[in-house]
Specification:
The structure holds 2 protein chains of 2 kinds.
Chain A (H helix, E strand, L loop, with lengths): L2 E4 L3 E3 L5 E8 L8 E6 L6 E6 L6 E3 L7 E6 L4 E6 L8 E8 L5 E4 L3 E5 L1
Chain B lengths: L3 E4 L2 E4 L5 E7 L7 E6 L6 E5 L3 E2 L7 E6 L2 E6 L9 E6 L6 E2 L3 E5 L1
Classes of the chains: A mainly beta, B mainly beta.
Chain lengths: ~120, ~110
């Protein structure tokens, strides 16, 4: 069964960093890009960027460039996103999502609630 | 960035109704438009990709159409489990962007 399992909720102070993990199972991890999408309370999802697990090439949204790093551990089929210099408005649910062959995000993690307070 | 504008922002409908949600893009995105359903507290779920391709397991009462800058999601014979938020999303270029969402509520 294809699955993305994310790390748990975290409470952070402004200025701190957070690193969220996303462990893939049930499919060939290096075959599909992993995207990170966040969703602030009551808001639409917001794309942060993607990483190619095969080449480890990344593409970040301009909004996050300089504050975000996406990495991969192919030995454990796990993707990570680290966000630095956290602000109150970074409070959101952070999702990993697989890029499907039809260009949509066809498999999502359960989400990781990050609260900055 | 491609801006996606959904309308309406919310709608009330009854079980059995047919509802249509529109998504307008700020530029031509050809057929690179996807639709997601989101139940509060859950991750979004891909319903339709590339305008009209239904994902496996998605009921046939969901359909999509359009091209270029105007797209629609239609739900025919609305069921109780369809009351949720719906988002369009473009995969034409980066940054990937989402519409602001449409809440489908029970009348």
């Amino acid at each position: 069964q294809e699955q993305l399992d994310q790390s748990g909720a975290e409470l952070k102070k402004p200025g701190a960093s957070v690193k969220v993990s996303c462990k893939a199972s049930g499919y060939e991890f290096t075959d599909r890009y992993v995207n990170w999408v966040r969703q602030a309370p009551g808001q639409a999802p917001e794309w942060m960027g993607w990483i190619n697990p095969y080449s480890q090439e990344t593409k970040y949204a301009d909004k996050f460039r300089g504050r975000v790093t996406m990495t991969i551990d192919t030995s454990t089929s796990t993707a990570y996103v680290e966000l630095r210099s956290l602000r109150f408005d970074d409070t959101a649910v952070y999702y990993c999502a697989r890029l499907g062959t039809s260009h949509g995000f066809d498999l999502w993690g359960q989400g990781s609630m990050i609260t900055v307070s | 960035d491609v801006q996606l504008t959904q309308s309406p922002s919310s709608l009330s409908a009854s079980v059995g109704d047919r509802v249509t949600i529109t998504c307008r893009a700020s530029q031509n995105i050809r057929s690179y438009l996807n639709w997601y359903q989101q139940i509060p507290g859950k991750a979004p779920n891909l319903l339709i990709s590339l305008v009209s391709s239904l994902q496996s397991g998605v009921p046939s009462r969901f359909s999509g159409s359009g091209s270029g800058t105007e797209f629609t999601l239609t739900i025919s014979n609305l069921q109780p489990e369809d009351f949720a938020f719906y988002y369009c999303q473009q995969s034409f270029n980066t940054p990937r962007t989402f519409g602001q969402g449409t809440k489908v509520e029970i009348k």
